[in-house]
From TrEMBL, chain A:
<dbReference type="InterPro" id="IPR002478">
    <property type="entry name" value="PUA"/>
</dbReference>
<dbReference type="Pfam" id="PF17833">
    <property type="entry name" value="pre-PUA_NIP7"/>
</dbReference>
<dbReference type="Pfam" id="PF03657">
    <property type="entry name" value="UPF0113"/>
</dbReference>
<dbReference type="InterPro" id="IPR036974">
    <property type="entry name" value="PUA_sf"/>
</dbReference>
<protein>
    <recommendedName>
        <fullName>60S ribosome subunit biogenesis protein NIP7 homolog</fullName>
    </recommendedName>
</protein>
<keyword id="KW-0694">RNA-binding</keyword>
<dbReference type="InterPro" id="IPR055359">
    <property type="entry name" value="Nip7_N_euk"/>
</dbReference>
<dbReference type="InterPro" id="IPR005155">
    <property type="entry name" value="UPF0113_PUA"/>
</dbReference>
<keyword id="KW-0690">Ribosome biogenesis</keyword>
From TrEMBL, chain B:
<feature type="compositionally biased region" description="Basic residues">
    <location>
        <begin position="626"/>
        <end position="636"/>
    </location>
</feature>
<feature type="region of interest" description="Disordered">
    <location>
        <begin position="1"/>
        <end position="83"/>
    </location>
</feature>
<feature type="compositionally biased region" description="Basic residues">
    <location>
        <begin position="10"/>
        <end position="22"/>
    </location>
</feature>
<feature type="binding site">
    <location>
        <begin position="320"/>
        <end position="326"/>
    </location>
    <ligand>
        <name>S-adenosyl-L-methionine</name>
    </ligand>
</feature>
<keyword id="KW-0489">Methyltransferase</keyword>
<keyword id="KW-0694">RNA-binding</keyword>
<dbReference type="InterPro" id="IPR029063">
    <property type="entry name" value="SAM-dependent_MTases_sf"/>
</dbReference>
<feature type="compositionally biased region" description="Acidic residues">
    <location>
        <begin position="106"/>
        <end position="123"/>
    </location>
</feature>
<feature type="active site" description="Nucleophile">
    <location>
        <position position="445"/>
    </location>
</feature>
Length: 180, 636
């Protein structure tokens, strides 16, 4: 377990900023105590100082996880967000997509969102913007990337993809062993 | 929409699913009944009709005991109302179990339905001796006296595959005889013979190993034994716990009802639990589950966390955490404040812990993979510790039926040994000076005494802890005395839960409070420390060490003949020990002690009689047993 290096921090923040924009500031400076990012076995964990203090006394090889896992660094030093970060992305997300109840299941199985399943979308979403996906009951389901801007979405045919799938909460069952 | 959540305000809508009547039952019944003079005078309910039928049968018969008959009428109705009231007082989950039991019975044996139901009611009010008597007489008339099968019959049966119906009937009859041994016994047959047969029959009928059936027979009285074994055949209802970090129970229930799930609140004792009766969708894969709004969790595993009662901003250790149900419940009660260290020794099982904790939005947990026994070394000074110790799983046979056959004495004692090590390290990692805490909760999903009371009793002796009430207002009290063992009287405040009484998994919960961080030093551990320092002590102890094993060895030699006979019985923990009178002769005790000393460390070791010890010389004399044990082992 160690603090992130300069490049790692940049890669992480760039990725997070795609979803939460300037709200990223709120994640780092929290009113309820100091929070920090730590790297452990290529995974990035977000945790409070108090947990950090306790975790430092556990031998590295025995430490499995701490706080919340945000994602991992690939072998090529790119950062990949995991669905476990959803709890922190969802409240701060700038751009959101709501899916219809019928298309919910399809998204939870790892499929892209088609125009026919699109319930609502934030105005002024640009193409390739990171979005958080919600069900119509406002339950966060995952996140992805907008394949079309809001304007284009209105015109395309029902079977066209509007949001590329990146992560969804179905992964808690499908990929339990690789989550952390 | 679905059904209302509040069971007390439930509106009745026509005959339910379970109100189905057996076809043709009316006609069948009429054949048995003498003609009713005032037929059709008034419409009776099902129960009332049955009672009336019984009354008529009795009236048709010549009166046997006048007084008994007079007594019968009024208590019968009072029992009825009593049982009804107690039915209302039950928890929903228990009511469901009772309903199911009744249903099973009716399916199994429609002819005996009447009697069974009557019997069930009477079980709740054991006062009804008279009515039961007549009932039993009816039975006896139907099938003649129960006779123990002869040796030839047993041999014949052993050659064939067992006839389960016959065995079942025999179990029933046998228990009846055993409960009323004075009057029902066959002349010249000992209780022992009946018990042995019952044990064999139970083992074949429920396919348990002989050892485990023996254990269960020691634990439960005969009246409960069959109930317990029977309830191990049906699975417990699916229960789930609301994750109050993300949602409220009312909202969750509504959302699940909309998905076609039929559910109810778990009971008065839990504010977050829900029971699922049936569901049209897989309950472990709904979007609500994936979003972390609930956790699938046995109702019994809520209890230890409730007993632990974690407070906000505390440091808590969960020693054996997988799969994370209890850990997340602790986090939920602490509202994600403070720190929890979730530990487990199995890396594979930890994957599901991490997954579950993230899904449920728990952020105050550190997950580690250490051996629990190393604990105060890794990290200590916790406010509370939850120890859900690994166990033989004799309380969750419904979940894992392999336990029936693949556990033997060794497995249980191995578990008990590990549990003793774990409970000591759990106690050591607690900070007794903590302002809010200093508590340890010990729980297992096993019903055997070796893994529960014995372990807690051991901890009470070894550390500065005392038992405190668990804060659970139901469940049975732990054993204070079991067979020849006597435990600390405060073990009354531990709690046991059984599948047949509470419709929960078999479970044991004990809550300990640590009142001092000092570890009391046992006298036998003191001695080896003294030895190098004080030569005088060494001289004194040496002859004692050589003197004590000698008589033991002699006894063993002299015993050999007797041992060959008894060894089998003792090792398989047969019922022979059970029926032994309390006041054993001194000689027997000595033999037992010698046996135990030889058998090794795990076995129960009865205290040696005073006369067998070398003359007590001050406090060091108490170290005798410890020495005795150590020396022969070294020789091997």
């Amino acid at each position: 377990m160690r603090p992130l290096t300069e490049e790692e921090t940049r890669a992480l923040f760039e990725k997070l900023a795609r979803y939460v924009g300037e709200n990223l500031q709120l994640l780092v400076d929290r009113p309820d105590g100091a929070y920090c990012f730590r790297l452990h076995r290529d995974r990035v964990y977000y945790l409070s100082e108090r947990i950090l203090k306790l975790a430092t006394s556990i031998p590295r090889e025995n430490l499995v996880a701490l706080g919340t896992c945000f994602g991992k660094f690939t072998k090529t030093q790119k950062f990949r967000l995991h669905v476990t970060a959803l709890d922190y992305l969802a409240p701060y997300a700038k751009y959101k997509v709501w899916v219809k109840p019928g298309a919910e299941q399809s998204f939870l199985y790892g499929n892209h969102i088609l125009k026919s399943g699109l319930g609502r979308i934030t105005e002024s979403t640009t193409q390739y913007q990171g979005v958080v996906v919600y069900s119509m009951a406002d339950v966060p389901l995952g996140f992805g990337v907008a394949a079309k801007s809001t304007q284009e979405c209105r015109k395309v045919d029902p079977m066209a993809i509007v949001v590329f799938h990146q992560a969804d909460i179905g992964e808690y069952i499908r990929h339990e062993e690789t989550l952390t | 929409m679905g059904r209302k959540l509040d069971p007390t305000q439930k509106v009745k809508r026509g005959p339910g699913r379970k109100a189905r009547k057996q076809r043709g039952a009316e006609q069948e019944l009429l054949r048995f009944l003498p003609p009713d003079p005032e037929d059709g005078a008034r419409k009776l309910s099902g129960h009332a009709r049955r009672r009336a039928a019984k009354r008529r049968i009795k009236a048709a018969r010549p009166p046997t005991g006048k007084t008994a008959k007079v007594l019968q009428e009024s208590p019968a109705s009072s029992t009825e109302s009593k049982s009804f009231v107690s039915f209302l007082q039950l928890l929903p989950i228990e009511r469901a179990a009772q309903k199911q039991k009744r249903q099973d019975l009716s399916e199994e044996d429609s002819e005996e339905e009447e009697e069974d139901e009557e019997e069930e009611e009477e079980k709740e009010a054991p006062k009804q001796e008279e009515t039961q008597e007549t009932d039993l007489q009816l039975n006896v008339e139907a099938d003649e006296h129960f006779v123990l099968p002869s040796g030839q019959e047993i041999e014949k049966e052993a050659a064939q595959p067992p006839d389960l119906q016959l065995v079942h009937q025999r179990i029933k009859d046998n228990i009846e005889v055993l409960q009323n041994f004075g009057t029902k016994r066959e002349e010249g047959r000992s209780r022992q013979e009946y018990v042995t047969l019952l044990r064999q029959d139970l083992a074949t009928y429920y396919s348990y190993s002989d050892f485990l059936i023996g254990k269960m027979m020691e634990l439960f009285p005969l009246s409960e034994l069959v109930d317990f074994l029977e309830s191990n055949e049906v699975s417990r209802p699916v229960t789930l716990r609301t994750n109050t970090l993300k949602t409220r129970r009312r909202d969750l229930a509504q959302a699940l009802i909309n998905r076609g799930v039929n559910l109810d609140p778990l009971g008065k004792w839990s504010k977050t639990g829900l029971v699922v009766y049936d569901s049209s969708v897989p309950i472990g894969a709904t979007p609500e589950y994936l979003a972390g709004h609930y956790m699938l969790q046995g109702a019994s595993s809520l209890l230890p966390v409730m007993a632990l009662a974690p407070q906000e901003n505390e440091r808590i250790l969960d020693m054996c955490c997988a799969p994370g149900g209890k850990t997340s419940y602790i986090a939920q009660l602490m509202k994600n404040t403070g720190v929890i260290l979730a530990n487990d020794s199995n890396a594979e099982r930890l994957q599901s812990v991490v997954g579950n904790l993230h899904r449920l939005g728990v952020t105050n947990v550190v997950v580690s993979r250490c051996d629990g026994r190393q604990f105060p070394k890794v990290l200590g000074g916790f406010d509370r510790v939850l120890l859900d110790a690994p166990c033989s799983g004799t309380g969750v046979i419904a979940k894992d039926p392999t336990v029936k056959t693949n556990k033997d004495e060794k497995d249980i004692l191995r578990c008990a040994h590990l549990q003793k090590e774990l409970i000591l390290s759990a106690i050591d990692s607690v900070n007794a000076a903590s302002e809010t805490g200093g508590y340890i909760v010990y729980c297992t999903c096993s019903v055997t005494v070796e893994e529960n009371e014995w372990v807690v009793d051991y901890a009470l002796k070894k550390r500065n802890v005392r038992l405190v009430p668990t804060g659970l207002d139901f469940g049975k009290e732990g054993f204070v005395r079991f067979k020849e063992r006597r435990f600390h009287p405060s073990l009354k405040s531990t709690r046991r839960f059984y599948p047949h009484t509470h419709n929960l998994d078999g479970f044991f919960v004990a809550k300990l409070k640590k009142f001092s961080n000092a570890i009391p030093v046992a006298p036998q551990e003191e001695e080896p420390a003294k030895e190098p320092g004080v030569p005088a002590a060494k001289e004194n102890s040496a002859p004692a060490a050589t003197a004590t094993p000698l008589p033991t060895g002699k006894k063993q030699e002299g015993l050999k003949g007797a041992k060959k006979q008894t060894a089998k019985q003792v090792n398989s923990a047969s019922t022979a020990t059970k029926t032994q009178p309390q006041g054993e002769s001194r000689e027997k005790k000595q033999k037992k002690w010698a046996l135990a000393a030889r058998r090794g460390s795990f076995q129960k070791r009865p205290r040696p009689p005073k006369a067998a010890q070398p003359s007590p010389r001050g406090p060091r004399a108490q170290a005798g047993p410890g020495k005795k044990r150590r020396v022969p082992r070294n020789r091997q």
